[in-house]
Amino acid sequence: MPDxxxxxxxxxxxxxxxxxxxxxxIKGVIAAxxxxxxxxxxxxxxxxxxxxxxxxxxxxxxxxxxxxxRHVDVMPxxxxxxxxxxxxxxxxxxxxxxxxxxGACTVLVDDVPLYSCSTLTHSVRGNKIVTIEGLKxxxxxxxxxxxxxxxxxxxxxxxxxxxxxxxxxxFLKTNPNPTxxxxxxxxxxxxxxCQDYEKILDALMRGAQYLREA
Length: 214
Prior knowledge:
Elements: H1 2-19, H2 22-48, H3 52-55, E1 60-65, E2 68-73, H4 80-87, E3 106-109, E4 112-115, E5 128-130, H5 144-152, H6 161-174, H7 180-186, H8 197-213
Parallel strand pairs: 1-5
Antiparallel strand pairs: 1-2, 3-4, 3-5
C-alpha cells in the first residue's frame, strides 16, 4: 500500500512538471526576484534614512517660468535643465556638456544668467525664471536680439544660440550699451563649435542696437 501511494505521488509530481512550461518557469523566477528586490530596497532605505520622512524635500512645487506659475513634481537631485525640458516641455533650453562649461543651457533667474544644468530646481523656488521661449518682442515681432541674429546670420547649426541669447539678454540688462569687447566678455561663458565668434558678436551687437532703439 505505501509503495502504491508513493507511486501515485510521483505520477502527480510528474504531471505537474509536465504542465510547467519554460515560459511559466521564467515568469515565476522573475516574479520572485522582483519581490525579493523590493523587500531589499525597502529595508535598505529604512536603514539608510530612518528619519527621512521628517526632513524630506517637498516634491510638488511651483515655479515661476516665463511669467506663469507652473506646478511640477521635482526630485531632490533634479536640475533645472531637466525640469524645464522633461517636465515642462521647454526644449529650447539645450543640454550640451551637462557640467557647466558650454553655456547651451543658460537661462535667466531673476535676470541673472545661470547654467541650468548645474542649478538644482529646488534652489530657484520663488525666483523668476526666463527661458528662450520667454524671450519675446512686442506683438508678433521677434525679440531685438533674435532679430539681430537673423539679420546677421549669426549662427550655423543654432544649437548653442539659445544659450548665447539668454546670456546676452542678461548682460544687456546691466550694460545696455556695451562695447564689442564688453559684450564679448559678457557671453564668454558660452561656447560655439561651428560658427565664427566674430559673426556671433556682429549679430549680438546688432541685436543690442535694436534693443536700445525699441
